[in-house]
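User: Please predict the structure of the protein below. I'd like the answer in structure-token form so I can feed it into my own downstream comparison script.

Assistant: Understood. Taking the following sequence of 366 residues as input:
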Amino acid sequence: MTRDECSASLLSLPEDVLLTLPHYLRDIEDFINLAATCRLLHNLSLHTLPRTILRLAAAASRTFFRPDPCFLVAATARQVGEWASRSSENTAELRAAFRKGMDGLLELALEHAGLTMERIRELYELRFSTINPVVDLIDRCVGVQWYATPNFWDGGVDDAWTLNMDPPETFFHLATYGELFAPAFDTFLDTGVVPEAMDVDTRLEFVKYCIPDWMCYIRQKDLRNTGNKPDPRRVVQPVGPYEPFLNSVKTYPDGFTEYTHQRGLGHLIDSTRWNPSWAEVRAAVGGDFEEEWRQDLWKAVVMYQGLEGMKMIRPGDLAPWRERLAVWRAKIAALTLRPRKVRVGRQETCVFPDLRGDVDIASGSL
């Protein structure tokens, strides 16, 4: 048969059969090509389920959605977090998925989340308008550009430290944390409590396994060697990203990244190059608080809003957020009780999403 004959034969099939074609495609590139074939297939492609589109996108994650799997995890984490909030059973499943690292979180997204082509186009635009510029800023705070500062160890920077960071992954770690846990702020500011799916226990599981850091595993292992027992919330099992430690006595076992993701994130959050952009955002809607606990909450609310929230520090992109920020700030100002902190080992973190405190617990002193 000629190509025209094949096309005619294909298009003669019932529409309910043609609608199943995306299930048999290799990846998102094939889907786009199929939709561009003719008007009929294009119109039918508009009815493809978001879950199917996500599966096709995941099949091409290493090509079109780098870093893999962090990009697609961040793009779907809000949906996964909403699903986990529906029941304690779902929350338990989310925590279990964390133990496989970002790969486990993507597996969960493939079951309970999806993407539309419209959202993929938005993410493509976000890559150039926000992601790349903010990744460059992160690189100037904790990456290669930071280390390239003249006289780095002799006063060239005010926060010289030994770190090994991958700025793109760091961006998506920060964005995914916001996507998963930002909804907790609204609940907390209205009720004073945090949902189980976004509480300290859940957040620590995410930080330990989805933001892997060799010190996170080594420090709790060292404590066990002294005969002491770490807080169960601090324990890290040799699973997921830490599996290479299972049969290795080396500090850096083969197959494990040497990136200091957790300590690097803490360093970034404290960086004098990172904070001015966020200070400008806060100043635009009322400025800072004098009381330390209100200021800590205000900083967290602004910074941990996920992928779209990163737009706030790009020039001209604050307008869509201004009203929400003003409401959040007013609610913080109206609080009468200081939010409690949760102690794990020697470290503390806030009951509301507090990435700085969470990474201190995960990789800090026990």
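That's the full token string. The first strand starts at residue 341 and ends at 344.
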